[in-house]
Amino acid sequence: MQTLLIGFLIGCAFGAILYMGGATSYRRILGTLLLKDMWIIKLMATAIGVGTLGVYLLDLNGLANMSIKPAYLGGVAVGGVIFGIGWAVSGYCPGTCVVGSSEGKLDAIFTVIGGLVGALLFSMAYPALEATLIEPLNFGAVTLRDLTGVSGIYLAIPFSAMLLGLAFFVLKDRYD
Amino acid sequence: MQEEKAIISWKVAGIALGLLLTLATFLVQPLGVSTQFVVTDAAVGHRVAPEATAKNTYLKKYGEKESWGVGYGWMLVFGMFAGGLVTSRVLRAKQPEADKGSMPKMWESVFGGSRSKRFAAAFGGGVLLLFGARLAGGCTSGHMISGISQMALSSFIFGIFTFGTAIAVAHLLYRQRG
Fold first, then answer.
1. Which of B94, B126, B155 is the last residue of a domain?
2. What percentage of chain B carries pLDDT values higher than 90?
3. Same domain, B83 and B138
4. Is residue A75 helix, strand or coil?
5. Domain span including residue B40
6. Is B17–A47 a contact, with Cβ atoms under 8 angstroms apart?
7. Across all residues in chain B, what is the average pLDDT?
8. Are B82 and A102 within 8 A, CB to CB?
9. For a tag on chain B, would you pick the N or C end, based on fewer CB atoms within 10 A?
10. Would B158 be classed as within a structural domain?
11. How many other C-beta atoms are found inside a 10 Å radius of the C-beta of residue B170?
12. Of A134-148, B1-15, B158-172, which gets the smallest average pLDDT?
């Protein structure tokens, strides 16, 4: 019960941040993908920069409940390509279409409905996809730490610094 | 073209999101959204078409009969809706005009004012988004924000392919704008 409440409250904050930060904005998402408006990419780089440092500081103290996704090259790459098309066409991702729906945006509601259909189609195609794209070439749930053998925090600090540097000093908007 | 900002800056939103991810990883587990579309499908499926759902090797893992599959993850997505609902009602006056409504001006400038065309694209895009996310094992939240923050190999691969494709498709869609 407590876990459900925590999930709900974290979700509320997540939704509020995405709404207030302009992540449900079509012009910002497409502006980012057209490499003209860097708002979203700066937001994401900052979030990942802070998140990497936070997660690996927790990990240093044995407090991180990590959840690493397995690296099956075929499925992750092909899934990424299909996802990328859907992202550019709808202007939403699975999280922002939920928040956009809450704002009353009809296109976001259609994206959510499409998403439910897409997830259903995937579950119907799963047996075929499992054999071809998910089980082969699976390198397991590995991180850069596993691959390099370097302690997590020593990788996290420079990686985090690079992302924050990118967001705060390097990326510049390029308007029409 | 983009003079209007948002209610909070990308800096504030980015830092808040990074801290929220850290908190979630400490309390339960990192953020993720796309699995919950399957959980919702499975919960409905167990009631509408119980035999087909029980036979499906993917759906039967989610949305158990007793709890409806409602756990931390589903409540998180439900919370996102609630959080968006409350803040968008309270702060609507502060949201830039360009970010309101169901028909983005930018879309209209190239594809015209047909609502059905925009909604068809949004629906089709949604189908691809969740098919792709489930095939890859996550979406922008689970793979990109949470996954790359954990420096997971799979999430770097997902990020490269997703951004690469989305950038190419966006340029294709808006090629006449230059």
1. B94
2. 83
3. no
4. helix
5. 7-94
6. yes
7. 93
8. yes
9. C
10. yes
11. 22
12. B1-15
A144 and B157 within 8 Å at the Cβ level: the answer is: no
Instruction: State the pLDDT at residue B61.
Output: 82
Indicate the helix (H) or strand (E) that contains B68. Answer: none
Q: Say how many domains are in chain B.
A: 2
Interval A110-131: pLDDT, tens: 999 999 999 999 999 999 999 9
pLDDT tens profile A17-76: 999 999 999 999 999 999 999 999 999 999 999 999 999 999 999 999 999 999 999 999
Per CB-CB distance under 8 Å, the chain B contacts of A84 are 132, 161-166, 168-169
pLDDT value of residue A175: 66
Return the DSSP state at A70.
Answer: P
Same domain, yes or no: B151 and B76: no
B1 part of a folded domain: no
| Boundary of a domain, candidates B67, B94, B121 | B94
- B66 and B48: one domain? yes
The closest of B166, B80, B81 to B128, measured between CA atoms, is B166
Question: ipTM, 2 decimals?
Answer: 0.95
User: Which range (A88-92, A94-98, B39-43) has the least confidence?
Assistant: B39-43
Claim to verify: residue B86 and residue B111 sit in the same structural domain: no
> Are residues B58 and B107 located together in one domain of the fold?
no
* CB atoms B125 and A114 under 8 Å: yes
Q: How far apart are alpha carbons A83 and B130 in whole angstroms? A: 7
Q: Which of B26, B85, B151 sits opposite A144 (nearest CB)?
A: B151
Residues B112 and B159 both lie in one domain: yes
CB contact at 8 A, A53 and A114: no
Written as six digits, the tokens of B168 are: 């190419």
Cβ(A50)–Cβ(A115) below 8 Å: no
Restricting to B residues 112-151, those with a Cβ less than 8 Å away from any Cβ of A are: 115, 118-151
Q: Does residue B124 sit in the same domain as residue B48?
A: no
